[in-house]
Amino acid sequence: MIAIPGAFHTATDDLPFADDWAGTPGVRLKLLMADIEGARFAVRIRFAPGIELPPHKHTGEVHAFTVAGEWFYLEHADIAPNRAGSYLFEPPGSTHTLKVADGNTGETDVVFVVYGAMIHLGPQGEVLAVGDAESHLRDWPAAVRAQGKRLPETLPIGGSMAYRRI
């Protein structure tokens, strides 16, 4: 029988950011947790002022906690902008384009807990890429290593949610 700890702790400030995440200058990402079997992952992303990401669709729900800055979705003018201290729930099937406020004086800092996958879309709605727990677990350590940064020895990963080497 596998012993499952009662909780997991990640000192997020001790984890390195992968700069220019997915080839996008001004976007920095760190992986906090990945559960491939449970189809979920958590990331902390910092965005430079004015960043606009391509549209994307979620196959599962998303929870977003804004730590600093301001951002919003271009398609949803009826929803208040996300600012420091705000929480946003995104239902499965939602499609939107993330835009960071142009007037921000520093980075916008957001923690996202994502269930399922993010389907990144092109101008005609074609699928450009799919991001999920497995791809983040593969791509984040590779990007961090390529940037010469030190990785932690372990992260909470997997359906049994045991700390594992990355």
Provide a brief overview of the structure:
Helices cover 8% and strands 40% of the residues. The protein is mostly beta strands and 166 residues long.
Keywords:
four-stranded antiparallel beta sheet; five-stranded antiparallel beta sheet; globular; 14 strands; 166 residues; mainly beta; 8% helix
- How large is the share of residues in beta strands? 35-45%
Order of helices and strands: EEEEEEEEEEEEHEE
Number of helices: 1
Low-confidence stretches: none
Q: Mean pLDDT across all residues, rounded?
A: 89
Per-chain topology:
Elements: E1 27-35, E2 40-47, E3 56-58, E4 62-68, E5 70-73, E6 82-83, E7 87-90, E8 95-96, E9 98-100, E10 108-115, E11 118-121, E12 127-131, H1 133-146, E13 154-157, E14 162-165
Explained architecture:
- The protein has 166 residues and is mostly beta strands.
- The protein is 8% helix and 40% strand.
- The protein has one helix and 14 strands.
- It has one helix at 133-146, and strands at residues 27-35, 40-47, 56-58, 62-68, 70-73, 82-83, 87-90, 95-96, 98-100, 108-115, 118-121, 127-131, 154-157, 162-165.
- The strands form four sheets. A five-stranded antiparallel sheet has the order 1-2-10-4-7. The chain has a four-stranded antiparallel sheet with strand order 8-3-11-12.
- The longest helix is centred in the C-terminal third of the chain and has 14 residues, at 133-146.
- The chain starts with 26 loop residues before the first strand and ends with a strand.
- The mean pLDDT is 89.
